[in-house]
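Board notes (copied after class):
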Amino acid sequence: MELTISQLEALPENSYYLFDIRSKTEFNHGAIPHAVHCSKEELLSQPPVEKDKKIIVYCSRGIISLDVAKALQAQGYQAYSLEKGFYSWLILEMGRHETDAYSKQVEFSIQKKFRKDIWCKFAKALNQYDLVKEGDRIAVCISGGKDSMLMAKLFQELKKHNKFHFEVKFLVMDPGYNARNRQMIEENAKNLNIPIEIFESNIFDAVYNIDKSPCYLCARMRRGYLYNFAQQLGCNKIALGHHFDDVIETILMGMLYGAQVQTMMPKLHSTNFAGMELIRPMYLIREEDIIAWRDYNQLHFLQCACKFTDTCTTCNNEENRSKRMETKELIANLKKVNPNVEKNIFRSVENVNLNTIIAYKDGQEKHHFLDFYDKESE
């Protein structure tokens, strides 16, 4: 019923079909070589294989895939579930890398192959928005995903070439990860030579039974914990890994779902932690370039480190993910007609003409164009 990774690798390539039944988003974030994406519903309704070949199915942790394999066996197929799922392969794959040589290869790729698309845009954001100053002590916050891991490597590169003194701490908060997710973060940090400091909280347990906007509450709580711990370490800034695509999606989501014009700012003063700032050094870096860097170096990161992934009540349900996914798809469709649409969305919040705005807020004070309309004619 179940196959281990070693048993899978021992099979002749033409003797089986390998199906990944995770979401398309998870599949795009990384998959086992030669795997084909297929939803469990599609696979069970009409398996696209001959019965003389084995069907090997995997999900994230080998839970859902085991039920699928049993159902396929009942239909007469030679079906197996990959024991412990994608993450078992991922942990094994990460352990195969030589840490020092591998880390140097990743660093070299940032300065050479991805210099224009990643390193230069990182440096441009630092300069354009004045994100790093002399004497700063920055907590680089690592969630375990591709964005924050790349940000950590970029800060390491910056330390090698910086023209003034500043300090960096690589901070990982464990909000209640399951053991395997935490191990993956630790393994990636080890392979990339990132000296992380981990502290723990119980945020996942706190939001597990929240029905309304649990992901939003989780994110807010995590940021508060990060500010607090970073401040205890003597840091004056926390760095988050939001990128260009996050920014333009936020702009559109605010307009379409929030009835407001706003953006994700490159830096913010904390309202609850005096003297603390939030900075976003990857503000100008495209997600497609982050993905290209990840895949070029054969890196594998968590898409979602929530311990409930597979039966997730906080991240993977349609209600919580649909708005951002709809916005991504909208931008992708608009780009087919106008290749500059992404840049135009970004620039729209740099070119706001207050003379053409019905109303706007300045802090808590709201202004309406009628307040000034008659005075202008006089």
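Comment from the instructor: DSSP finds 16 helices and 13 strands in the chain. The CA atoms of residues 101 and 327 lie 40 Å apart.
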